[in-house]
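Supplementary Note 2. Why include the ligand at all?

Several targets in our set were suspected to adopt different conformations when bound, so apo predictions alone were not considered sufficient. For every target with a known small-molecule partner we therefore ran a joint prediction. The input for NAP is given below.
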Amino acid sequence: MNGLVGKTALVTGASRGIGRATALALGRAGAQVLVHYSSNEAAADSVVAEIIAAGGQAQKIAADLRAADGPHSLARRVRAIVGGRLDVLVANAGIAHAASLEDTTVENFDDLFAVNVRAPFFLVQQLMPMLCKGSSVVLLSSLAARASVGELAAYAATKGAVDTLVLHLAAALGERGVRVNAVAPGVVATDMSSFATTEAGRDYTLSLQALKRVAQPDDIASAVTFLASDNANWITGDTLRVDGGSKL
Ligand SMILES: NC(=O)c1ccc[n+]([C@@H]2O[C@H](COP(=O)([O-])OP(=O)(O)OC[C@H]3O[C@@H](n4cnc5c(N)ncnc54)[C@H](OP(=O)(O)O)[C@@H]3O)[C@@H](O)[C@H]2O)c1
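The joint prediction is reproduced in token form.
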């Protein structure tokens, strides 16, 4: 697939997991990829090197998206690198915190909303001048937004907020020809869901799903790449379940 040749893409949280797989997939599709990370510079370097080794273009870019001005400084640096136009924004960076209602602290709750909701909102706001006709924004929702899985109430609420943002951002940006969607994975084998690598975690995961294997980051990246491409040019304001048929 080379449907993104000549396009520019920013993937937040691209050093690991789903973001890493998405950055590599967008690079293979021909996009110039900005590989965002927070603290794991070596991991971001290896993603950039892999894209370049495959003949693509990539650059790393750091920002702490828990900080109130993180999205603003990231957007300024994106503008400085790619100029006036950003074709694809994948707001993927996220954190999770499993805790019972009793054990969830105000700090946990605020951190989750800062990284998972406030950052994508202000990143879109700050990048709006660079988003043009044909640009695509993809956010990361979760199965947790529509089903009670694990002890994830605060995290799940952030993903419910993402689903709501998708509707409002798509409505606000539609007139400019910018599409906004989300993908909602179930359990994916990444650092965030490392329990899925244990036998008990794997059994639990498979018990949720119609398809009986543990999802890998590439399973999600291919759906994000589809939504980012012109093949999805009539899809906006939607959250696409990419979860192997979880909790049907
Ligand atoms: N894995 C799942 O089962 C699953 C299921 C549903 C939805 N999701 C969603 O998919 C997205 C990616 O998840 P993942 O499993 O790939 O996560 P992951 O492997 O834990 O990777 C998280 C990424 O986010 C970045 N990040 C973390 N805190 C940050 C901060 N304060 N500022 C900026 N970047 C930060 C990390 O950067 P560093 O490497 O620099 O730390 C890393 O690149 C998240 O939004 C998550 O909620 C995941």
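The CA atoms of residues 66 and 115 lie 5 Å apart. The chain has one domain: 8-187+217-239. Comparable summaries for the other entries are listed in the accompanying table.
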